[in-house]
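Session log. Operator J.P. requested a structure for one protein chain; no other inputs attached. Running the standard single-chain path with token output.
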Amino acid sequence: HRLDLAYVPWNREHTTTIDRQIEWGDVIYDAGAAVTAKARSQMFNAIYKYSFFNNGRVLFGFNVGISSVWKYYSLSGEGTISGGPGVSGTITERKDVVFPIPVIGLHLETTLIKKLFWRLEDNFFAANVSGYRSNVNEFSTSFVYFPAKHFGLGAGFSSTMSTIESNGPNGGNYRIRAGFSGVTASLQLPF
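Structure written below.
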């Protein structure tokens, strides 16, 4: 049995010239416009891990828990406000979403040598709240060394893919996919 608490913040920003018209809320960005997309997320996970297989060297089991996600998305560029008197210029349209998401997943851990472990984990999060649909798939692998019984240092790789969609009167139709991956470092304090 194990309870893992994790906080994962990330930010992304990208500017591109769009090749088709985009309608975001009540703003229209025409093809050929330079548009800057920003995405910021914060995720706090509380995940309970139960190992149904444990032979002293290998653990394998399932994960259940809850994640709270705070997401902020914005588009900024030369646009026109639709349904109005034709106002245009550099316009920024922003969407904020906050919601809890249930988590399910699997974990595998093996002892390589005394005090050194290899871990593999995949968690899936999905929710449909107030007209917004979101899912997150988080995969990670790491090596963890415990120089003391209640203190461990880890390094590894993690990849996260996120999708959020909205349809209808809650601000238009949109689908946003974002992902990030990279090297991770961890401090582990088992008790």
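Operator note: The chain has a mean pLDDT of 80.
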